[in-house]
Amino acid sequence: MSASKLDAVYRSILLTKFFTKGWGKPENLRRLFEFRKVVSNREECFKLVERDYPVTITKEQNVAEGKLLEGYFTSPLEKHLPGIVPEIAQKAHFQALLPTKWPDKDCKPVCLHLAGTGDHFYWRRRNLMVKPLLKEAGIGGIILENPFYGLRKPIDQIRSSLHNVSDIFVMGGCLILESLVLFHWCERNGLGPLGVTGLSMGGHMASLAATNWPKPLVLVPCLSWSTASAVFLQGVMAHSINWDLLEDQYLSDGEYREKLSKMVTIVDEAFLAGKKFARTYSQNMEKNVQTATQTKTSDNVGNNSNKNLDITYKENKNESENTEKVIDVTKTVLDSNKIVKNANRTELENQIENLNEELKKLLEEGKINQALYEKLISNKKFELDPQDIEDINKLTENKLKEMLLKCKVAELRNEETLLSETLTHTKESNDMTEQRSMGTSNITADNTNVPTLKAPEKNELIPEADKSKSWNITDFTSDIWANLPFFKPSGKKIDIGKIHWRDREALQFMRGIMDECTHLSNFSVPFDTSLIIAVCAQHDAYVPRDDVGTLEEIWPGAEVRYVDAGHVSAYLLHQSLFRSCIIEAFERSKKRWKDGKHID
User: Fold this and answer.
1) Which residue, of 84, 392, 504, 562, has the fewest CB within 10 Å?
2) Hey, which CATH number is domain 5-269+502-592, 3.40.50.1820, 3.30.110.40, 3.40.50.300, 3.80.10.10?
């Protein structure tokens, strides 16, 4: 589906910027990652909030719509992770609007409404959702103020501009536990059945909150999806982030790279790999069929000298006139070495073997040490020690140095699609030493095919080099050179609209931590998925759904509905649809509600 242009235009005129101070303290991120493992387990998380958790009501008055209550309580997250919640955000404020008289004294439905991005204070949710639901269906509403918003906004924070990436995880942790407090408060006051909803970010927070309530709970997330990673890396909000600042912090502080990056996992990596395999396998099969057809035609019209090698078993070896081209399967064990070297060989394999032989010769001659030798043949990312750099610079085999450089750079640049892209060539550039003199490298490049150290699998298609294209040093982005320690990064800024999150290590880290803390597959499945109705916009440019797990896959039994709109237009034009879905989900819940509780 095409992305909404209105979403992009609307986002471009907003002034709000996110994560203006960076990732946040590494220690805070570490504590949040560890705490995520607790809150993602419903049984463990439910124990964190007592049934009689203290709630203070500060205001109670009758209004035209019903009874209005206001209150507060201390966020349980401050109790379990002291010091991680800003002091002003530690007190959770809420407002409740309930009917003066319930239509059914045994059924008092109440829905918790969580805030979307930029939804400060109570008035927006009260007027657009709570009042109409109370009037149309007799459903009471509770409006919880988000941490970092409204009454809980830090003094030095401008609008909704969260200072740190860690703040979004603090917000999520607070709302998960604070929702449990309010659900307990509702039960103590005889309210129910219960539900939770929200729009955009509020919809995702509602989904997280619902995973930890051990009873049937109505859930209607609107304009959200399975993870926040796509929002910040692929959606239009990615343009509101200072990626250069985040990358500088990530590369300069070893805590992020060496410790925190190992604590997170990109959840949909297997999904992406499987999708890519299915696509490339289909393409390769088509190429194989075409090649086989062409070969068969060539065999039929050509002379005998152009026939393919026959490796089929011949019961009568004398009946074939081309006996020298027939391989008897009974002899393959004895002649296996010869067959491997002659019958099933590729140019790339020969290049790899020659390269490894030269490396081994250098090792035997003492020109490189064992550690450097193992790095160069490992086909993995590596960092060069000062001694390694010195050894490389002493080499006189310029050809070999050039091959090593291009092997590693090509692999670092695009490991995922290397075998599906055209191999490039290089121009004569003997002045590379002068251009990179600050990096203490003397490696040169000329017109040589770019090999990789990894041999292709059997029957794997390797594209031929495109001789019409040339390789130029300026084509590389700064993060590639950053991965080669003996080069100085160029300092080129990140243009999130032109690169993929896989292309930069800092973006991969962002994808990993967002998936770690927000991906719904990392949390428990809601108690009763039949009470879930999700509403999504088909052309949503804020919340892309490509290449991430679907709600139907993660929550079997949940229902997903789509509106033909973008994110902004759906918010402006389809509020009535969101309310109708909430009413419908509560009607489902009421059918199983009796004597103040759900029945099986």
Assistant:
1) 562
2) 3.40.50.1820
CA atoms within 13 A on the CB side of 541: 19
Higher pLDDT among residues 85 and 597, named by residue: 85
The C-alpha atoms of residue 36 and residue 241 are separated, in whole angstroms, by 24
What tokens were used for 485?
């320690």
**386 with 485: CB under 8 angstroms?**
no
Token code pair at residue 88: 């002003």
- Write down the domain spans for the chain: 5-269+502-592
Whether 359 contacts 368, CB under 8 Å = yes
Residue 420: what are its φ and ψ, rounded to 5°? -105, -5
Cβ(510)–Cβ(165) below 8 Å? yes
Query: What does each C-alpha distance from 430 to 14, 383, 424, 490 come to in angstroms?
Result: 48, 24, 18, 20
Q: Which of 575, 573, 518, 596 is nearest to 220 (CA)?
A: 575
- Spell 16-46 as b/e; 16+ CB within 10 A means b: eebbbbbbbebebbebbbebbeebbebeebb
Other Cβ atoms within 10 Å of 451 Cβ, number: 20
Among residues 204, 175, 192, the alpha carbon closest in space to that of 77 is found at: 175
Q: 576: exposed, middle or buried (C-beta count within 10 Å: 0-12, 13-18, 19+)?
A: exposed
CB atoms within 10 A of CB 306: 10
Asked whether 71 and 56 are in contact (CB, 8 A), the reply is: yes
Alpha-carbon gap, residue 200 to 179, rounded angstroms: 17
Distance CA 598, CA 600 (A): 7
Pick the range with the lowest mean pLDDT from 9-18, 143-152, 214-223, 313-322.
Answer: 313-322
Q: What is the pTM of this model?
A: 0.65
pLDDT score of 388: 64
